[in-house]
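Renewal narrative, Specific Aim 1. Our central claim is that a sequence can be written position by position from structural information alone. The example that follows is taken directly from our test logs and has not been curated for this report. It begins with the structure tokens describing the chain, in the order in which they were read.
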């Protein structure tokens, strides 16, 4: 149907998923100005994610596979929340703990939506960045996977808040995938894309 319309009216459609064509950590995208593309959007994003999975599979084969089991240290340090340890803690947590930490996750999503970056540390009181460092690459797939856990246990429209953030976080990963060189970074990025594709498969 869509193909017929675009052909009849000579509408040119960009076949590539354009959001990941440049480094999104250096050049954040303002998604509020994006045009609606319907199911074509999901086709493009699926192709982008499959390509990224293939990239990470090849890279993982080259660097070797470790046990890739992450254990968290104490994620609270003085008045700060250490993001990586907090995300590892949540990734290994029960649904009850996820629900308990839901307010913090929503604040992290809110902070992420502003600058499209994840910082090393946040103050515990208001969950505002307390570090200027945002290039801890492992934080991005970990955040995506934690959001996937929240999406999976949420049965209301709120789940699309998580999906929206997952798409944007994974866009960042895809746009800088060549920078992922450590086994854990590669392994969890691959898992993040696979989890996203599960959601897309359910929606279309």
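The sequence written for that structure reads:
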């Amino acid at each position: 149907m869509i193909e017929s319309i675009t052909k009849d009216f000579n509408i040119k459609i960009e076949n590539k998923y354009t959001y990941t064509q440049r480094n999104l950590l250096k050049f954040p995208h303002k998604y509020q100005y994006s045009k609606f593309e319907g199911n074509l959007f999901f086709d493009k994003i699926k192709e982008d994610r499959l390509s990224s999975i293939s990239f990470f599979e090849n890279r993982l084969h080259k660097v070797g596979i470790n046990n890739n089991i992450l254990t968290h240290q104490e994620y609270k340090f003085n008045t700060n929340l250490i993001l990586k340890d907090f995300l590892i803690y949540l990734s290994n947590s029960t649904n009850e703990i996820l629900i308990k930490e839901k307010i913090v996750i929503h604040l992290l999503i809110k902070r992420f939506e502003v600058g499209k970056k994840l910082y090393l540390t946040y103050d515990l009181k208001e969950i505002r960045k307390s570090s200027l460092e945002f290039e801890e690459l492992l934080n991005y797939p970990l955040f995506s996977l934690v959001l996937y856990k929240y999406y999976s246990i949420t049965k209301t429209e709120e789940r699309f808040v998580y999906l929206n953030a997952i798409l944007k976080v994974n866009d960042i990963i895809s746009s800088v995938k060549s920078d992922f060189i450590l086994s854990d970074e590669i392994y969890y990025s691959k898992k993040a894309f696979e989890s996203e594709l599960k959601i897309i498969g359910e929606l279309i």
